[in-house]
Amino acid sequence: MTDAVKTDVAIDALRVDGPRLWDALMELAQIGATEKGGVKRLALTDLDRQGRDLVVGWAKAAGMTVTVDQIGNVFMRRAGTNDALPPVMTGSHIDTQPTGGKFDGNYGVLAGLEVVRTLNDHGIRTEAPIEVAFWTNEEGSRFVPVMMGSGVFCGAFTLEHAYAAKDVDGRTVGEELERIGYKGTQVPGDHPIGAYFETHIEQGPVLEDADKVIGVVPAVMGLSWYDCTVSGMEAHAGPTPMHLRRDAMQVAARIIPEVVAIANRYPPYGRGTVGMMQVFPNSRNVIPGQVKFSIDLRNVNDELLNTMHEEMTAFVAQVAADSGLDVKLERVSYYPPCPFHPDVVGAVRSATAKLGYSTMDVVSGAGHDAIYAARLAPSGMIFVPCKDGISHNEIEDAQPAHLEAGCNVLLHAMLERARVV
Ligand SMILES: [Zn+2]
User: Where does this protein hold Zn(2+) 2 (predicted)?
Assistant: First the structure.
């Protein structure tokens, strides 16, 4: 009894080694380092291989065993006292954007490694095994689709589909995996997960703006993407009287404010963006004959996202009828919102409270491997602030103290699930 109480106190006092975590991040960031202080380490390049080798070497030095599956996902395992239990897993990705930063993805993987190193330092055993994963091609920059490794793992698309994906030079994922020596033998998905945690920089400005250290992530927003094409008739801007025009731009200009209005009708997580526009023929003295633009609608609640979709569709139909122009609204992508598991979110919440960090809930507006992991196992995420909310940029930055705090939350949340023995 006394021993058990002592153990609980000792476990509560357990903290990761923040400087060691920071050093690992800085060392991995050397591989593919850019002049502006960022990282360019695209999926399945020689640099990716070097990054993978470095992390795998660290894992082996920490006594972990390493498994690679057929899509190149890597699982680094610290045995539990009951190895038949499914592992408590954490992970993320180590590929980057062409002008990426040091923290996106890399933090999630190295925070997991730091958890294991901390447990080793203190000789702490867990009943369930602990695993740290990095997933292949999360960024989707060199090869489409994004979140490829975790997507294949959970069966969102097939291994053959992923293998056939080509980069701009025509090299395929299958060839490149083989070339860098990371085409493993394990069948993707043939690998149980007891629970999945992912620590990540927020990639948005909410935590920094509210001056909070830990973001508890209850869900990831769903999204609906559209191509909208308005077709009119190009004609000379001078001789054509106003009442005889079929001006595609003016019709597009009626639709665009509605994208924002719809988002504003469904707060606090409604989002509406027109980020891309093509005008034909794009000449100052020609009435535009065709305007094509993108619409991006998001919300955290699927019902609300559907309502937004229906309102958008109805509005576009109305504008088409009023104007007499042909307006096509084509949905090109849809991801439902992903609510995380209450048990895992709860473990993050209670670890944060125990450690005394300032905290708030932050819904993720960006996709992560955890979305796919959530299809197979109870999953959740931990966010820490990043400077000015900026990522996918070489100036991406985060404070060592925040990264350390997120890693401490990960440690205690994982221990709650894996059970100290
Ligand atoms: Zn990421």
Answer: 104, 139, 392
